[in-house]
Specification:
By secondary structure, the protein is mainly α. It has helices at 6-33, 38-41, 49-52, 55-64, 85-114, 122-145, 153-161, 164-172, 177-187, 195-211. 69% of the residues lie in helices and 0% in strands.
Length: 213
């Protein structure tokens, strides 16, 4: 059975109500800056959590610490401020995880400069744990979303930097991308293949080093 303490659950809830909306908004806002009108027309240039939350992705975050939001639709062919549509798509995709890194940096600063200077009380220790877990969940979102598995952000970043033939192959998987994701996240671990964990661990390591944690 899952053993989730109140401080862990609160930290994950903070990310659900803050991290995910900012993540999805960042995708849309980056596309908007490059000339795409799709996010604005579809009402995705907002921080309202109800606009951005995906039911399954939200449950995954609350239960496991990593998951996803409702993907913000963008049109790279409208991002005319960038000459290559695949590069534009990669920049829009990268904006989401980048927003989570900025949030993790913010929480790390609060932890180091704020909480560390307060007297040690039960409340301060509890808040310290909550902020620490919030950093961990944001890092988890970055690590998970940057996996090169369709339809995650990492696959779109990979398309932007990979040779055209590789990009074509990855894009051809889009119609079945959710099945691929479900298979990798839920089915492979049942037969002893933890592909997600193996790919996320080095990303965790690098990000925690960058955060000085």
């Amino acid at each position: 059975m899952l053993n989730i303490t109140a401080d862990v659950l609160l930290a994950r809830l903070i990310v659900v109500l803050l991290g995910i909306p900012i993540h999805e908004w960042a995708h849309g806002f980056a596309a908007h800056l490059m000339g795409d009108t799709t996010p604005e027309r579809e009402g995705r240039l907002t921080l309202n959590p109800l606009t951005h939350l995906d039911p399954l992705g939200t449950i995954m975050i609350l239960l496991t610490g990593f998951g996803w939001g409702r993907a913000a639709r963008v049109n790279p062919y409208q991002m005319r401020k960038v000459s290559n549509p695949r590069t534009a798509m990669a920049l829009s995709a990268l904006a989401g995880p980048a927003s989570n890194f900025i949030q993790a940096v913010f929480f790390a600063i609060v932890l180091r400069l704020g909480m560390a200077n307060l007297p040690s009380t039960e409340v301060v220790e509890w808040l310290t744990r909550v902020i620490t877990y919030a950093i961990v969940v944001n890092v988890g979102l970055i690590a998970f979303n940057m996996l090169p598995i369709p339809p995650l952000d990492g696959s779109r970043v990979l398309v932007g930097v990979a040779p055209p033939r590789v990009g074509d192959f990855i894009e051809s998987l889009e119609p079945v991308s959710m099945y691929i994701l479900i298979g990798v996240v839920f089915i492979l671990p049942q037969i002893g293949i933890d592909l997600v964990g193996a790919m996320m661990r080095p990303i965790y390591t690098v990000l925690f080093l960058l955060l000085g944690l």
